[in-house]
Specification:
Layout: H1 6-15, E1 27-28, E2 39-40, E3 42-45, H2 62-65, E4 71-74, H3 76-84, H4 91-108, H5 115-134, H6 140-147, E5 154-155, H7 158-171, H8 179-200, E6 203-206, E7 209-212, H9 225-260, E8 273-278, E9 281-286, H10 291-296, H11 299-302
Parallel strand pairs: 1-2
Antiparallel strand pairs: 3-4, 5-7, 6-7, 8-9
Helix pairs in contact: 1-5, 5-7, 7-8, 8-9
Length: 303
């Protein structure tokens, strides 16, 4: 299911001046905002998100429906109004309202709207979207349970996706004010890339899945069986440790995003967990870095 990406959220809020496109009331993204005088803002769809929603009959794809161009920032009252009166608020009228409002923001609030800051946030939001996509944050507990199984398995496409994410982090130009987010993202990309690249050293592909290659098992007699079995176990343990570090980094990354960028980022999903075990039973575990570890990462662990 497609969701609204962080970069589209930042564009919408930035160009709307954090105000309702209709009544101009100042809005907030977080339900627990410090300033209770602010109204909770809602990212309303112009063309409905689903075919059966208000104004939902359209040829737009689900991804297009969740993009900046199809969103308008409203207060809860006006969001309810446009969805309960579809005939009075057709698509064309809402696009006009949005355009006029953003022009008003540009002309009226230019002194208070920091376009440089908005551009920084959009750039950072693009990195956050990449983390969600390439690290599969929305399915973390599912895919990591396979990689941490007694006989680990990886989706064959995932090492390349993780490598692409690592390259994006290396290329990124980070604003100084997002230093902790940079370090958390760097740690996540390094740990995941190490986990994937380490697994690739002793794996074989069958279909769309990578399985471990148990090189110590041979058809005939293996005089180095004990040594190779020990080497295999050490390799498997290293793969596990990198996945645990990755889970800690994912939780750190999400905590900083919620604090500095979007308080609703994976707020309903909760923290990232892993499931470990075998036929005798499974355990669900939550892994997090200590504050001392965060202060020294990524240099202390991955230098």
């Amino acid at each position: 299911m497609a969701t609204i990406q962080q970069k589209d959220i930042k564009l919408l809020w930035g160009r709307s001046g954090n105000r309702c496109a209709m009544c101009k009331v100042e809005l907030t993204q977080g339900k627990n905002a410090d300033n209770a005088s602010f109204t909770l803002g809602e990212q309303a769809h112009i063309v409905g998100e689903k075919d059966k929603a208000s104004r939902g009959q359209s040829l737009l794809s689900e991804k297009q429906r969740n993009s900046y161009h199809n969103l308008i920032l409203l207060c809860p009252n006006h969001h309810t109004e446009i969805d309960s009166n579809e005939q009075g608020w057709p698509v064309e009228k809402l696009h006009q309202v949005k355009s006029e409002h953003e022009l008003w923001v540009s002309e009226t609030l230019s002194s208070t709207t920091d376009l440089v800051q908005v551009s920084k946030q959009v750039a950072v939001a693009s990195i956050i979207d990449s983390a969600v996509k390439f690290c599969r944050l929305d399915r973390w507990d599912v895919w990591t349970s396979w990689t941490l199984a007694p006989s680990p398995q990886w989706d064959a496409n995932m090492p390349d996706e993780i490598y692409e994410f690592r390259q994006k982090i290396i290329r990124a130009i980070w604003p100084e004010e997002y230093d902790e987010l940079r370090r958390a993202a760097d740690t996540l990309s390094i740990a995941l890339n190490l986990a994937a690249q380490t697994f690739l050293k002793h794996c074989e592909q069958h279909g769309e899945t990578l399985f471990p290659h148990k090189f110590y098992k041979r058809n005939g007699w293996n005089e180095n069986y004990d040594a190779e079995a020990k080497e295999y176990d050490a390799w498997a343990q290293l793969c596990r440790e990198y996945l645990i570090d990755s889970t800690k980094a994912a939780n750190w990354f999400a905590d900083v995003v919620r604090r500095d960028i979007n308080p609703m980022f994976f707020a309903e999903y909760g923290r990232f967990i892993v499931v470990e075990g075998d036929i005798l039973g499974h355990q669900t575990k939550l892994y997090q870095f200590t504050q001392d570890e965060k202060d020294s990462l990524p240099q202390s662990k991955f230098a």
